[in-house]
Amino acid sequence: DKTPLKIIMDEFDLQLNGCCESDGDGVLYVCTCNSSVSLFKLYHCRYCVELKCSYCVGHEVEVYYPQSNLREYKLVSDARESRCRSTITFGCPLCGLFLHHQRTKDTSNGDYFLQCSFCHWNSIGTQFTGSEEDILVAMKDIQNGPASNKYKELLDHFKATSQAESKKEHTRRHYDSTSSFRKGHKMLRSKPSKQKLLENVKARQGMRYDVAQGEWVVAVAEKSLSDVETHPQKDLNDHERVAEEDYMSTDISTVSSLSQRLELPHSQPSNTSALTPHYERLTAKMSKRCLSCHHNVVRPDIGPDSHKFKIFNAARSALPRVSIVTPKPTMRGQETDVFVKVENPRDYDMNFSFVPSEHTGDFSMTPPSSEVILYVNSSEISSDDPPEVVYRKGNTAYLKLPIVRNTQALEDDEDEENNKCYEGFLSMRFRHVPMQFIKKSEEKPAQDFTVPLRFFINK
Could you read off the pLDDT of 22-63 as tens digits, one per residue? Predict the structure, then answer.
């Protein structure tokens, strides 16, 4: 109690409430879809003036690029032709990471071999050695082998069949829609009578509609239980069991996994010794768009080697960050105080206030009596501040809010002795000034913005 208040608040900055549900801040923001998310995982649409989580935005692919060569990037149309894989870089057959070109010990001939920096796999002793052109030729020879030809035939047959079926279905729907109506929405064909419909239903009993043929066909009769051939059940002891010596003699590291085989659909080797490098998978650089107003929320530069963004409307740069610092131990049925820290992310002063929420939690919080001003840089408490403001430091204000445990939470404490994370609800209202109005004109039309908050306090 003899410690000055300033020293206590400086210590609170390093002792945030350690609730696992709120990423250490003790506060979750409620999105427009009623999902509680951390502030650092939210986006702010400045046109709708709403919070958007990852489920409330649409993801669009801007460009594809390999992780090992950031200068090689492809658009969506070009990446589809190569099946979203690179044509220059290769992936490790064991771990899947990209491979590096390393020079051999004999540097006079200028030969290279492929090596993985993670699992230390290398292509020494295989056909993937020599110059860079020789390695590319060896990769193309494997891709164009006898197994790949069969794979391409099956893939082309599947594409042709699916395209023919979709075209036939589109033609049938277009014919049905055009044959029933004329211009002016007048019926060309008369509707069948109820008696005719009943006759059609009776005639189609035991038949099914084939979409590919566009007509009703006779359904294949299903087998009953009497038609199924059954065999007498055998005792488990009659089966031959594999000896333990066979398990001990088998080296599991020599058997390829399912993911390793699927990377090579042409050959699908069962042994790791037969695995070969594959073309590296491309990574997508995506932009995010608001699903309500269809404006971009996040749009990066098209260059894969650039970490800049053309548009990046993160919620942490528009909304005040609210966090709970270490409170006093909560007493049963008594009122206690919780210190709340609020930070101003803008370069202008913001007015905000806490209002009661419609939801009820394990404890109720009493909001401040009036609005609080978040300054850009201020370390003194002004006379206009409500009594709940106890300390200021730069763009941060510390508030002392009283909380009272609810009756239901006290009853749960008597039944459970384990640690529990209690939650409370409170809404924050502040005036938001859109950034585009600040840059284009001197006028700053402000809008009232209310954000529901969920506070978490450990037992």
Answer: 455 678 888 888 888 888 889 988 888 888 888 889 999 989
CA distance 106 to 329: 71
Contact 323, 457 (CB under 8 A): no
Q: What is the dihedral of CA 159, 160, 163, 164, to 10 degrees?
A: -150
Strand partners, 215: 210
DSSP assignment string, 381-419:
--TTS-TTEEEEETTEEEEEEEEEE-HHHHHHHHH--S-
| Biggest CA-to-CA distance, the chain | 96
Q: Are 386 and 372 in contact (CB under 8 A)?
A: yes
Render pLDDT for 216-264 as a digit per residue (tens, 0 to 9): 777 666 555 455 555 566 665 666 666 777 667 777 788 888 989 988 8
CA atoms within 13 A on the CB side of 443: 2
Q: Which amino acid belongs to residue 139?
A: M
Angstrom distances, CA of residue 444 to CA of 269, 341, 375: 66, 27, 17
**Residue 117 to residue 137: CA distance in whole angstroms:** 23
Q: How far is CA 435 from the centre of its chain?
A: 28
H-helix or E-strand containing 29? strand 27-30
d(CA 18, CA 7) in angstroms, rounded, equals 21
Q: How far is CA 277 from CA 280, 289, 358, in A?
A: 9, 37, 59
Say how far apart CA 451 and CA 50 lie, in whole Å.
Answer: 9
**Residue 2's pLDDT band (cuts 50, 70, 90):** very low
Mean pLDDT score across all residues of the chain: 76
Q: What is the DSSP letter of 306?
A: -
In 3-state terms the chain splits into helix, strand, coil percentages (rounded to 5) of 25, 30, 45
Q: Are strands 396-405 and 309-312 parallel, antiparallel or unpaired?
A: unpaired
The 10s digit of each residue's pLDDT in 96-140 is: 888 988 888 776 777 889 999 999 899 988 888 888 888 888 888
Residue 453: CB atoms within 10 A of its CB come to 20
Phi (first) and psi of residue 434, to 5 degrees: -60, 145
- DSSP at 60: E
For residue 57, list its beta bridge partners.
290
Higher pLDDT, 443 or 97: 97
Question: Which helix (H) or strand (E) covers residue 45, if one does?
Answer: strand 43-45
